[in-house]
Amino acid sequence: MLIKPHQQLRGSLSIPSDKSISHRSVMFGSLAKGETIIHNFLMGDDCLSTIHVFRQLGISITLEKDTVYVKGKGLHGLSAPLAPLDCGNSGTTVRLLSGILSAQSFSSTLTGDASIQKRPMARVITPLRQMKATLSAKEDRFCPLHIEGGHLEGIHYVSPVASAQVKSCILLAGLYASSPTTVTEPFISRDHTERMLEAFGAKVTRLGTSVTISPCEELYPCEITVPGDISSAAFFMVAGLITPNSDLTIRNVGINPTRRGILDVLLEMGGDIKILNERLVCGEPVCDLRVRTSSLHGVTIEGATIPTLIDEIPVLAVAACFAKGKTLIKDASELRVKECDRIVAIHTELSKMGGAVLATEDGLIIEGGKPLHGATLETYHDHRMAMALTIAALNATSPSQLLGEECVRISFPNFFELLAELS
Ligand SMILES: O=C(O)C1=C[C@@H](OP(=O)(O)O)[C@@H](O)[C@H](O)C1
Ligand SMILES: C=C(OP(=O)(O)O)C(=O)O
After folding, report:
1. Where are the beta strands (DSSP E) in 24-66?
2. ipTM over 0.90
3. Which residue from 68, 130, 160, 280 has the highest number of Cβ atoms inside 10 Å of its Cβ?
4. Which superkingdom, per the lineage (predicted)?
């Protein structure tokens, strides 16, 4: 795809629905007894993988425009799949499912595309084995992941990583355990599982960075409206800030405190962003954002902030290239185990454009203010890289060629159409 530099982005847009919340709504709906109705579901490839897998597990799921009807069969209502469960490109699907499937009365195999088969699974295998689950994996750490379902015991797991996927996997297994299960994280990761499981009737208690779940008899169906995804909004937030003469209103953005790091950091960088119409949608805080062209300055991002903006770091690195001074990103080694090694990908591609970007073991150092020029850019089949590089290319001094842009359909199928409408 050829991307030519743009002069301005103006108008208003609704961004796609939240990927994390969409996944969980299908999963928990399948485990509840009765019909769960999900409005504004994200029809991106990752969430469609979750639907596909639950259909393989015997759940009837129907789609009507952006509404999904899930006929849940209860905590013990899933049936043995006839083939391996293909989770596509979705780490969330594999890891959350591994917790649920460890407690079933049948065996199953989880797998996915080439990228999924390289992502670390020891992080869920280790705690699930402590709960007495029986699992095996390629080299004991990669998909395909084979699970012999059975009886589980509650544990207190102190996780070495702040990962909502690890936490959610253990909490979901904990629904079925013979005693309460606690997960303690180094920093709080996104809490959609805790919020939504409570709405479905589970007993969840939180203390500091710990969450405890009680064994559960039954989950009750819900009607859910999924808010817009701040991780998708981030591309337009940065685009609006760095593209000259821009004025964008981004409607229906989820600003859950465990997800809004990108908003707070862009404000700290000097971004002109107004938070409008704050409201609650299905227990999740939501707002509209008005974003105008701004002069940004560099910042340091580390520690507890990292899990609140982990998926937004590729586009934050683009913002940093257009900011005055140095931006330091530390404690973000998790970026190395996403759809690709995002530290290598950001460093390689932004350097090709003339950006002053250094990769460190656990992050990036970016000296902003050097104009970016066009280049032939690789997406690494990573949706977030494709969209972040598009925003960089729009603001380069010459056209760029983006290779493999179709991966945006993982989380943001109409990304290029929306961008074209605003330019
Ligand atoms: O739980 C979730 O929905 C997610 C958690 C994060 O991953 P980790 O749990 O690996 O940090 C995030 O990067 C991913 O896009 C979605
Ligand atoms: C890392 C991501 O998702 P997942 O882990 O579900 O593949 C992402 O969407 O950036």
Report:
1. 33-39, 60-64
2. yes
3. 68
4. Bacteria
